[in-house]
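Bit of a strange request maybe. I'm writing a small parser for structure token strings and I need a real example to test against, not something I typed by hand. Could someone generate the tokens for this chain?
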Amino acid sequence: MAGVKLDTAGLNKLKVLDDATIQLQRIHGIVEQYAIALRREQPTSTYSMNLRRQLPTLSENLKSYFGMIADQVMALNLASTRGSSEQVKVRTLREGVAQIRQSIEIAIVQTKDKHAIAADSEESETGSAES
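Reply from user aminoacidic:
Good idea to test on real output. This should exercise your parser:
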């Protein structure tokens, strides 16, 4: 697909998704540090508090264009605060982060498809107008 450009709405959506990807990587790092601390039997309260701050921020950033993904993030936040064992929380967090990452990747592909402007079609339109 040579010469594919995006309209302004598509560029704005991709910017939101790129920022969300970066935030999700940060959250993923916190989850993995949480799992390591749990395995080493170290205190884990700082990791859970940090996740409770990071997940709503990610949700707010996604809410403007991608409400369904924002709802997934808030569902993960709610599930991570439920009273269960630490191992179950870590497993839930890992699965939730993977689901959100997959949703963001799907949204990126759909945004590129939906907001694509082919440069070849613009050239053919201007060429036919000159004739």
